[in-house]
Amino acid sequence: MTPRIVITGLGLTSPLGNSPAEHRAALLAGTPKIGVLTPRYMGEWPAGICDFPEDRHQRRKDARRGTRAGRIAVYCGREALADAGLDPARLDRSRIGVFVGITEHGNVETENEVAAIKEYGYNVKYWSHHHNPRSIANNPAGELTLNAGITGPHCTVGAACAAGNCGLIYGAQQLLLGEVDYALAGGVSEAIRSFGIFASFLAQNALAGHDDPNRACRPFDRDRSGIVVAEGGCLYVLERHADAKARGARIIAEILGWAVNSDATDFVLPNPERQAEAMRLALARANLEPKDIDLINAHATATPEGDRREVRAIRAVFGDDCPAYVNATKGFIGHAMGAAAALELAGNLPAFGDGLIHPCANIDHLDPDCALPRLVVDGTVKADRPVRAILNNSFGMLGINAALIVGAGE
């Protein structure tokens, strides 16, 4: 019999707060928290900014040597372990794995170093000797292993904006293979520290601006204008169900099914047929029918074409009369890239217990092309049936799609 994989802990930092409870409370209250940043060369732009206690789990010396993404991973990973009631010092650390989804890594460090040596006539003797370990792709996961003394496998999962789901999927797969007994899995992002990300979205006419930053990100709204870049992180402790029960762990949720596929269509524009295929494959793996899904968290980046195509994919799978509730998170925090899917899942998991479905944010005039029967627009709603299964959608550039289904923990 295939082992069941469950979630027994999570830790996060988001623009809404530094704990799952703070994050969830702001979502239920319908209060976005978007700040303003001044990326190099670009002036002021809305951005989702985190403010977490970096010295809670890390010495200042180590924090200075590392990266923002690494600090986020350390904070989220340590918080997740504590939430699961686990102390690495009391475990076989070679049986703990760290699998962190990222959209990109290294841009921030390279941009900063180039800007720094410009002041010295581009003399490379002023280039930091920390640059290589800071900019390698496995940095965020590796920094967490160094901090916690974890000696099992670690890697980052580069999957564009599907990375948070892919980190969780990879962690679950490693548990099924028997490679680890505990997986720290999810996603992190330091995206707001890179002016190149802002500049590229601006060049694509996909960067949202607004006089009120909290109104800038408007998924599904007729007047949406694009992405608000955000940072953040969310890591989960995954275990095999039998092991979690044996140690008396609190089971938050169960991973029921997943799918990852590729559009093979375009660098940027999503393919709704392949998105629908990913959802169907995840349902098949979970042995569920579309009618069994109670809540869909939409990827919903607030780009005009991206939102329309995702809704088209949802209708293809669930029908025009889609019975599931549908919500979206990016209007509250912006697009946290590699962390997005993991943070969005965290905001919806408590619905298994309280039945509350948080709304979308900033929908004043719903785009008719994005209308779904149970799209939650006008504030938090109480589900009219128990929430037993959640579909978490995440899609990324170069056509990577990841659909994850989680069920109520038992």
* Domains (count): 2
CATH topology of the largest domain: Peroxisomal Thiolase, Chain A, domain 1
Instruction: Give the class-level CATH name of the largest domain.
Output: Alpha Beta
Instruction: Kindly state the number of beta strands.
Output: 15
> Would you identify the CATH architecture of the largest domain?
3-Layer(aba) Sandwich
Main β sheet profile: 10 strands, mixed
Please state the overall shape, judged from the principal axes of the Cα atoms. Answer: globular
Quick check: average pLDDT?
97
Separation of the first and last Cα atoms: 18 Å
Instruction: Work out the strand percent.
Output: 15-25%
Q: Can you list the strand order of the major beta sheet? A: 5-4-6-8-1-9-15-14-10-11
Model regions low in confidence, pLDDT < 50 over at least 5 residues: none
> Structural class from helices and strands?
alpha/beta
Descriptive account of the structure:
With 410 residues, this protein is an alpha/beta fold. The chain has 2 domains: 5-246, Peroxisomal Thiolase, Chain A, domain 1, CATH 3.40.47; 257-408, Thiolase/Chalcone synthase (Peroxisomal Thiolase, Chain A, domain 1, 3-Layer(aba) Sandwich). The chain contains 14 helices and 15 strands. The chain has helices at residues 20-29, 60-65, 68-83, 107-118, 131-135, 139-148, 163-177, 195-203, 241-246, 272-286, 304-318, 330-333, 340-348, 351-354; strands at residues 5-13, 35-37, 45-48, 96-102, 154-158, 182-189, 229-230, 232-240, 253-262, 295-297, 325-327, 356-357, 381-382, 389-396, 400-408. The strands form 3 sheets. It has a 10-stranded mixed sheet with strand order 5-4-6-8-1-9-15-14-10-11, sandwiched between helices. A 3-stranded mixed sheet has the order 2-3-7, with no helix packed on it. A hairpin with a 7-residue loop joins strand 2 and strand 3.
